[in-house]
Amino acid sequence: MAASRRAVLMLPLLALLWGGSWPMFNLVLSELSVWSFRAFAVSGAGLMMMLVVRLLGISTAVPPGRWRWLTAAALGNISVWYVAATAAILYIPSGQAAVLGYTMPLWAALISVTFLREPLTRRVGLALLFGAGAVALLAWPNLTHLAGAPLGISFSLLAGIGWAAGTVINKRTDWGGLHPLALTAWQLVIGAVPIIIGALFFTDLRPFLPSLKVVAVVAFLSLVPTAVGTLIWFRIVDLLPAEVGALSSILVPVVAMTGGILAHGEPFGPLQAGALACAVAALFLALTPSRAGRA
Q1: Is residue 165 a contact partner of residue 237, using CB atoms and an 8 Å limit?
Q2: Is 39 exposed, middle or buried (CB count within 10 Å of its CB: 0-12, 13-18, 19+)?
Q3: Distance between terminal CA atoms of the chain?
Q4: CA separation (Å) from 275 to 23, 122, 294?
Q5: How far apart (Å, rounded) are the C-alpha atoms in residues 22 and 166?
Q6: CA 97, CA 85: separation in Å to the nearest integer?
Q7: What is the SS3 string spanning the chain?
Q8: How many Å apart are CA 238 and CA 178, to the nearest integer?
Q9: In angstroms, rounded to a whole number, what is the distance separating the alpha carbons of residues 5 and 191?
Q10: What does the pLDDT look like over 206-229, one tens digit per residue?
Q11: How far is CA 266 from CA 94, 133, 261, 276, in A?
């Protein structure tokens, strides 16, 4: 219970760090490609985290037998998530892309139930239904009004699936005493590698200097949401059960959608309000213990 309380206290901070970053992506993508942006942000965050780990004297040695799981988790948590979630914003509003990307809890629960044989409680099942409702309410108007909506929705869902797989691996792997800071640093560094390779293949390598404003935003996104936010998220996953820890992240897109409305005038009507209500309901069900649990 004490661990769960600590995790719950981290949620508002994580929501502000991650949710508040989504409206900034539009500015960055006006000058940089998805691949270039994420290559700078993720590799920068990984190097900063590695530096912090070394300065604190924390060992970065990965215990034997963990490298394949570390790589798999990094590909899902970092590589797939950051590239696909950012690409979605090119086609649909950032707030709505965030809500769809955070269908991650649906996939995490399904992976846990299907492959890890974890029990699916009635409470979590109901939360999953609310999460699915949020997806449906946002997907329908986008498909009917935005030409690029199928691509945007597909990228968002791919991001959620990749993140879900990485989250389940993180939760189920015995890391053999590997410090959380070192685990975060390694996943950022490993996850940055395929993004950098993608940037070399898919972006224009001619010299280009973005504006000072974009450089500052990329630096902020590297340090705060990417590095610090990822560390907080891994800690939440460590403290809460896998499906509950995953569902708890639904608070983030609520902040992201609000930021998109305020910063960019993104649409907000009955369907968007209904999606937010479904997200909040899913969060409440995931974090509020049942009577049997309290007993």
Answers
A1: no
A2: buried
A3: 12
A4: 18, 21, 29
A5: 21
A6: 7
A7: CHHHHHHHHHHHHHHHHHHCCHHHHHHHHCCCCHHHHHHHHHHHHHHHHHHHHHHCCCCCCCCCCCHHHHHHHHHHHHHHHHHHHHHHCCCCCHHHHHHHHCCHHHHHHHHHHHHCCCCCCHHHHHHHHHHHHHHHHHHHHHHHHCCCHHHHHHHHHHHHHHHHHHHHHHHHCCCCCCCHHHHHHHHHHHHHHHHHHHHHHHCCCCCCCCCHHHHHHHHHHHHHHHHHHHHHHHHHHHHCCHHHHHHHHHHHHHHHHHHHHHHHCCCCCHHHHHHHHHHHHHHHHHHCCCHHHHC
A8: 13
A9: 30
A10: 667 889 999 999 999 999 999 998
A11: 8, 20, 5, 14
- Amino acid residing at 196: I
- Structure-token pair, residue 203: 């972006």
Sign, CA dihedral 81-14-283-136, equals negative
pLDDT digits (tens, 9 = 90+) for 181-195: 999 999 999 999 999
Check the CA dihedral 112-126-238-100 and report its sign.
positive
Structural contact between residues 238 and 229, judged by C-beta atoms closer than 8 angstroms:
no
User: What distance in Å separates the CA atoms of residue 43 and residue 198, rounded to the nearest whole number?
Assistant: 13
Q: What is the mean pLDDT of residues 112-124?
A: 77
Torsion from C-alpha of 139, 29, 227, 183, nearest 10 degrees: 70
CA distance linking residue 205 with residue 153, whole number of Å: 29
